[in-house]
Specification:
The chain has a single domain, classed as Non-ribosomal Peptide Synthetase Peptidyl Carrier Protein, Chain A (Orthogonal Bundle). Helix content is about 75%, strand content about 5%. It is built from four helices and two strands. Strands 1-2 form a two-stranded antiparallel ribbon. A hairpin with a 2-residue loop joins strand 1 and strand 2.
């Protein structure tokens, strides 16, 4: 069982996934800082409030912190845009050209299909 676990961990996919999660966490911290320290104050200038995260509405005993929700939405959109752009760039750089099928294999399969078709036509005539 330990041997199987070592083989599982040693696979490239698991290690790549772990690296991706770690980098994703660090990137999320950068985006949160960008949102909290640069974007929110800019939005706050137009809304008249400096900190969006403190925006809230109280109804009775319930407090709705919609500013914190707005921060999360802004963070999400920034992460989504950056990931989209990274994927586009990676796809352009690592452009995998589709392999062209071998002409001989295609011709052989077409030939077999033609022979089958001809045999079926002959059987239908009998």
């Amino acid at each position: 069982m330990i041997k199987e676990f070592k083989e599982f961990i040693a696979r490239g996919n698991v290690i790549d996934l772990a690296v991706g999660v770690i980098i994703g966490s660090a990137f999320t911290a950068i985006v949160k800082s960008l949102t909290d320290n640069l974007i929110n104050p800019l939005i706050g200038i137009f809304l008249g409030k400096i900190d969006l995260s403190n925006m809230k509405v109280s109804i009775g005993d319930a407090t709705f912190k919609y500013g914190a929700f707005l921060n999360a939405v802004i963070n999400f959109f920034i992460v989504a845009i950056v990931v989209f752009l990274l994927v586009k760039i990676i796809n352009k750089v690592v452009r995998n050209e589709p392999e062209e099928p071998e002409d001989e294999a295609v011709e052989a399969s077409e030939q077999y299909l033609e022979e089958i078709r001809d045999l079926l036509k002959e059987q239908a005539k009998k």
